[in-house]
Design goal:
Strand content of chain A: 15-25%
Low-confidence stretches of chain A: none
Largest interface: A-B, 104 and 104 residues
Oligomer: homodimer
Radius of gyration of chain A: 24 Å
Strand order of the largest sheet of chain A: 9-14-13-15-16-18-17
Number of strands of chain A: 18
Chain lengths: ~525, ~525
């Protein structure tokens, strides 16, 4: 067995059976080893698609996929979505082919400081010593990824083709998440009982799914506290029959206003609410200056267990759950605007669909108005790097056969990693990509005003407008094998979504604003 | 004057008047300062387009452009083409907006180790200390870029909006390139006179344009030595009325055969010929094992001056110049193949056009068969990272108004940074993008065989095939406002190229193989 085969065998033995790949010459041995019926290799036409797909895959599956990238520049193309994945706690095993060791000293054109490029965004990083150590290196990389870390394994060509000897079968170890210490829970319980004003519980990560929201809902019923998420969360289970969490707003003024009443904020698997950007004269910290923060569960700890302990301490285990009722939303008619978009979504979303939300300006209203839709999952961009949506939708769909994925994009964000559409078509993924085409970086117009500049001058304005020429997303989708349709009324938008769910495979809807 | 204005004023004062931009919130002050009629800001829909455009701009203009990128992930998206630019010796000033300094400690979603990401590929890197030092920092960045270096200036939001005070007007200093020491020239001259076998002169960088090839041609006439380039060169002036340089082949077997006769290799602004990748059982060094290397001019030295000194030392200043004669190529007919592609190109290329070559498999034959075309420039990918072509064509066209740019792409490579097409349309650039659609990563098939695997198994083969679904490049181009046409005969390919030159603005030709 050569090194590449030992690596693939270890991946498979550990249950890592999906590889999002954009291979090059230095990965030919790995490619040969991937020719294994147990491994699902998914070709991506750009590396940012591969790393974003690994993010979406982990969010839905809670276990990692591998990526295969080509040398330093191939990794570089994947870094922005690695940043987003890292912020989302999505583990992945990045296998980066490198030159043959003896070739490095000649500084061939594709040589770069590969470890230097990988280090800032990898939790775990190693250049394998050779074929004989690859299986052990792979095991460690997989275990790191399973715990939500970015693991980057650099694979020199000679390690791929060298003799790996006997490859051991390692046991699969699941990472354990620590429960919070009892004193911490007691402290929070005491504080909630004594507080004379409203208390906010902010949930994140795995506490936003499974039993987490239900437990938070019981605590809210018993104590009157409010329950919310940060503006961005990696995955929320929500909709009718679940417990709705409020959402701390994005813009600083709105967030300050939202948080103003709370003198106590309890965080579960997250930290203090912070502004996305800083603005002249506005604070970075969003809480009221006198508000106290109480960490019930740190990021990485078991927040659901923490909520269970807190519910016990508060005697809230039997309190009523504020189950979200089903809200039947009539199909909206007429003009496209944020409200009619949200209503069309709420009316069209099938049960257990997955909403990947990178719609920025146009999608801000959707969350509140879809809370009574059929139960669904929402995935949001934790890292803020644009180009997250369509790749994450790719991976989410790969991980969740039978579930329709709606990928909500702005026109600006859509253009970063649009190559995903080709993989949607190739793999027949049930992804409906919705592009809200307002033909500008509208978020930047707002941010320009937030900085105190008012209306931009003509040359600055041009840098935020993408209307010249007009992007035709139906044409772009057709070019990659995805059928598309353009709509400019709320009823047509709704109908197009419903139609896309009735057929298997991908579709694109351009919503002209 | 605030920091951002001081920065823009210093850029303009130093002649850096073009900025390839993909801005975000942290760059709003810089955007406001860019609202200056003397600065040409070019919006790019993906950062790899911006950095590749800066590469193409430098190659043609020999002076740097600026890029504007958004935080660590925005930089990350531009890194692959920064790698290519670095390898090509193309300087650029990357301005990377960062969070406001006081905001960094809150570890907001877009926070990353920005300097860590920039360091591996930047020659010059600094996070500015504040508004008051920005003009000096910018000057140093510009001077580094002018000398062909990657200069990365990190611009925290508060440095942008802080008070910069009086901004000095700095003088413009041109970098000087050293001439080689006389002893080195004498050594090479003596060797050439005494050599009993053929000698090869390998030219690179600026020695491949202006008087460099002519001087090399005189030396070749006088001494019988051969003159060539590496397989990849940043810019070659060639065609009828110039001196043709041979090209060392890409594939190792062919390169070994080509170099086999030479026992002496003289390098000018480059180093030893090295294999792009290493293969089992094949050497990395391409020269004959007994061949001696003689460096006439190191990279960065003045190779043209070195050739002048060598010509003097050899008494070759008056030797005949082997001017390339004009070869009138008849319009080819019928099937598309590498030869008919090259003939169609040779017949269609207008005087002083610019060929940006990322065609990989399909373009390998073009160089030999276009040597007698009308005089033109060829730009090749020095760094090997795919996605170089259309961005470099963008920058080359911005730097060279009135000259038609042909951008030759494979279908695989075209998909990496296809967002360039939109900027072509927006700026009305005279770029004809030619996509050779063989519907596979054909280069990888060859490399798979080179690794000794023969024909790939079905799953490995799938990772090299991009025919499912078929990419429709005419649709993709239309989606970004570029008119396109599909051709499948040599005469139609020729006619489409000629038509594209007759009209101003961009065009795309999909050549179905």
């Amino acid at each position: 067995m050569n090194g590449a085969e030992a690596l693939v065998s270890t991946l498979l033995g550990q249950g890592v059976d999906t590889c999002f790949a954009n291979p090059g010459t230095s990965e030919m041995h790995f490619l040969s080893a991937l020719d294994n019926p147990a491994m699902k290799s998914v070709l991506c036409l750009f590396e940012g698609v591969a790393t974003g797909a690994a993010d979406g895959y982990f969010r839905m599956k809670e276990s990692p996929a591998a990526t295969l990238l080509h040398l330093g520049p191939g990794l570089a193309n994947g870094l922005a979505n690695i940043h987003n994945a890292r912020r989302a706690g999505s583990g992945m095993v990045n296998v980066i082919g490198d030159h043959v060791t003896s070739h490095l000293k000649y500084d061939a054109p594709l040589t770069s400081d590969l470890e230097g490029l990988a280090r800032p965004l990898s939790h775990w990083l190693r250049t394998t010593d050779g074929a004989h150590t690859l299986a052990h290196d792979a095991l460690q990389a997989i275990e790191a990824a399973r715990a939500g870390e970015i693991a980057t394994l650099v694979l020199p060509g000679d390690a791929s083709w060298g003799d790996a000897g006997q490859v051991p079968q390692f046991p699969r170890r699941q990472p354990e998440r620590a429960a919070p210490p009892a004193e911490r829970v007691d402290h929070v319980a005491r504080m909630i009982r004594k507080a004379d004003g409203p208390v906010l519980l902010v949930l994140a990560d795995r506490a936003c799914r499974g039993r987490g929201p239900e437990l938070a809902g019981r605590i809210a019923s018993a104590t009157g506290c409010r329950i919310a998420t940060q503006f961005f969360t990696n995955r929320i289970e929500r909709g009718a029959g679940r417990v709705t969490l409020e959402r701390i707003p994005y813009f600083v003024a709105a967030a300050l206003e939202y948080l103003q009443p709370f003198r106590h904020i309890v965080t579960v698997e997250t930290g203090e609410p912070i502004a996305f950007f800083a603005y002249p004269g506005l604070p970075s910290q969003l809480k009221h200056p006198e508000a106290q923060l109480h960490s019930l569960a740190l990021p990485g700890e078991d927040g659901t267990m923490a909520l269970e302990m807190l519910a016990d301490a508060l005697g809230a285990r039997q309190a009523a759950v504020p189950w979200q009722e089903r809200i039947e939303t009539p199909v909206p008619q007429g003009a496209i605007d944020p409200t009619s978009i949200a209503h069309a979504l709420a009316a069209a979303m099938p049960e257990h669909c997955i909403l990947v939300d990178e719609s920025l300006t146009s999608g801000r209203t959707s969350m509140a108005l879809t809370c009574g839709a059929l139960p669904h999952d929402t995935l949001q961009n934790m890292g803020g790097s644009i180009g997250f949506g369509t790749p994450v939708a790719t991976g989410a769909a790969m991980a969740s056969p039978g579930r329709r994925v709606f990928c909500l994009e702005g026109d600006g964000s859509m253009m970063y990693t649009l190559q995903s559409l080709w993989t949607h078509a190739r793999e027949g993924l049930d992804v409906t990509t919705v592009v809200f085409a307002n033909r500008k970086y509208k978020i930047l117009e707002a941010e320009y005003a937030n900085m105190g500049f008012g209306t931009p001058g003509p040359r600055a304005a041009e840098m935020m407008e993408i209307d010249r020429p007009t992007l035709d997303f139906v044409s772009l989708a057709r070019g990659m094998g995805v059928p598309g349709v353009k709509v400019d009324t709320a009823e047509d938008f709704h109908a197009a979504m419903v139609r896309s769910c009735a057929e298997s495979g991908p579709a694109l809807i351009e919503v002209v604003m």
